[in-house]
Amino acid sequence: MKKPLALALLASSLIAATSVGYAAAAAENWDNTCAKCHGADGTGSTKIGKKLKLKDYTDAKVQADLKDEDMVKAIKEGVSEGGKEKMKAFKDDLTDAEITDLVAYIRKMKK
Ligand code: HEC
Predict the structure, then answer these.
(1) pTM of the model
(2) pLDDT over 90 for what percent of the chain?
(3) What distances in angstroms separate CA 16 from CA 13, 56, 66, one per listed residue?
C-alpha cells in the first residue's frame, strides 16, 4: 500500500510545480545563467556587465529599442562582435519556451 500512495503524492506535487512554476523558472534561469553579466536586476551593473557596456533593461528607452525577435535571436544564437563572442548561444541549454519566458522576464524589468 505504501508505494502507490507515494507515487500519487509525487504525481500531484509535479502537477502543482508545473502549473505555478513558470515565472519561477525564468527567474531561476536568469539568476543562474544571465545575472553574472546582466545583473540580477537587469541593469548590467556587474563587473563584467560594465566591461561589456551592457544595456540597462530597467530603462524604458532601452526596452522600447529592443524587439522581441532580436532578443530571442540574441539568446538563441549569442552575440558576437568582430568575430569575438560577447555572449554565448544558449540554444542548446534552453528550450524555446524558456527563452520566450526569459524575454518576458526581461520585459518586466522596465521601471
Ligand atoms: C558573458 C556575459 C553574458 C551572459 C552570461 C549573458 N549575456 Fe546577454 N548579452 C551579453 C552581451 C555582451 C550582449 C550584447 C550587448 C550589446 O551588444 O550591446 C548581450 C545581449 C543580450 C540580449 C540582446 C539585447 C541587448 O541587450 O543587446 C539579450 C536579450 C540578452 N543578452 C539576454 C541574455 C539572457 C536571457 C541571458 C541568460 C540566458 C544572457 N543574456 C546571458 C552578455 C551576456
Answers:
(1) 0.85
(2) 78
(3) 5, 34, 34
